[in-house]
Amino acid sequence: MQKILTLSNISEISGIIGGKVQKLLSGDRHQIEFFCSFEDFDLLSFNYHEIKDKQDSKITIYLDKENIFFICHEEPMLRVAEELAGTAASDGSLNNEQLLYHFFARLLKNDMAWLDEYELRITDNEDEFISGEEKDFTRKIISLRKDLLNFKRYYQQLELIFDELLANENDLLSDSGVRYCGIIQRRIDHLLNDAVNLRDYIAMVLDSYQSQLDYRQNNLMKVFTVVTAIFLPLTLLAGWYGMNFDMPEFKSVYGYPAVIAVSAAIVLFLIIIFKKKKWM
Questions:
Q1: pLDDT interval class at 33 (50, 70, 90)
Q2: What pLDDT, on a 0 to 100 scale, did the predictor assign at position 187?
Q3: Tens of pLDDT, residues 215-235
Q4: Which residues contact 97 (CB under 8 A, 6 or more apart)?
Q5: Which of 35, 120, 168, 212 would disulfide-bridge 164, Cβ 3.0–4.6 Å?
Q6: Which of 72, 58, 70, 75 is nearest to 102 (CA)?
Q7: Cβ count within 10 A of residue 233
Q8: What is the mean pLDDT of the chain?
Q9: Are 70 and 85 in contact (CB under 8 A)?
Q10: How far is Cα 168 from Cα 161, in angstroms, rounded to an integer?
Q11: What integer is the mean pLDDT of 49-74?
Q12: Which of 162, 168, 164 is nearest to 182 (CA)?
């Protein structure tokens, strides 16, 4: 039998799955952690991550020699499961192993395109900050990093499930079933590697952004330092001539112009020195 149903309707298959499984699924806290292998059946449980809407929905798959049941814990997941496996499950055109493969193949079908889109978004943000046109760069890039962390966790749980499934400890899968699961596992590994690489790419972009900010800040501090150094001698002169007693220069007609000329000469001299030292 092949069936898609919600957790609230699990009584429909209670005669097949037994009271123990029903109790595991119906408890206050879901007690199945990714994969459970029993003598006559397997239980696969994972949080489906909706990439577009960024929503998680739990689903448990019961698989034995004769039956496969897709048990959705939330209503949104029921619609997803019906879209992915509904037609094949209702007309019985696929056996259980083929249906399991069909479900996960369609589940992961568009994920590569989504990850490629995220890579383009990261690249666009990188180009913006390099050109100096970034707006809310940090917020955007951190949001992308959080999304990729969710992808990474999603693919990790699927990878764990198929690692256990391929072990086939209860000989539930046929040779073709093992081959189908191997195909899905390799696809999951590829997606997981892409998600991890994109997170590394984001880390590199953030480091580059921080380096760019540090470079701009250092240039700004350099300008302030040069300006301060140039006008420091003038500050000394101003303090000197601001003292409250007579100086010989005050009695000379050329005293004030001479001080101005000396000040200008000091500034010009310092500018020449700084340019030769390539400090400005």
A1: low
A2: 93
A3: 777 777 877 777 777 777 777
A4: 173, 174, 176, 177, 180
A5: 35
A6: 70
A7: 15
A8: 80
A9: yes
A10: 11
A11: 82
A12: 162
Distances, alpha carbon 256 to alpha carbons 29, 165, 188, 214, in Å = 89, 93, 82, 44
Q: What is the spatial distance between Cα 192 and Cα 198, in angstroms, rounded to a whole number?
A: 10
What string of H, E and C letters represents the secondary structure of the chain?
CEEEEEHHHHHHHHHHHHHHHHHHHHCCCCCCCCEEECCCEEEEEEEEEECCCCEEEEEEEEEECCCEEEEECCHHHHHHHHHHHHHHHHHCCCCHHHHHHHHHHHHCCCHHHHHHHHHHHHHHHHHHHHCCCCCCHHHHHHHHHHHHHHHHHHHHHHHHHHHHHHHCCCCCCCHHHHHHHHHHHHHHHHHHHHHHHHHHHHHHHHHHHHHHHHHHHHHHHHHHHHHHHHHHHHHHHHHHHCCCCCCHHHHCCCHHHHHHHHHHHHHHHHHHHHHHCCCC
Query: What tokens appear for 157 in the block?
Result: 């749980």
Would you mind telling me the total number of residues written for the chain in this entry? 280
Chain mean position to CA 246: 72
Nearest to 115 by CA among 54, 181, 49, 195: 195
Q: Alpha carbon of 44 to those of 3, 26, 27, 115, 202: distances in Å?
A: 15, 15, 17, 25, 32
Distance CA(172)–CA(24), nearest Å, equals 21
Which residues on neighbouring strands pair with residue 70, listed in sequence order? 4, 61
pLDDT of residue 194: 92
* pLDDT, position 89: 65
CA distance 54 to 103: 20
Query: How confident is the model over 155-213, as pLDDT tens digits?
Result: 998 999 999 889 888 888 889 999 999 999 999 999 999 999 988 888 888 787 777 77
Domains and CATH numbers, the chain: 1-94 (no CATH), 219-276 (1.20.58)
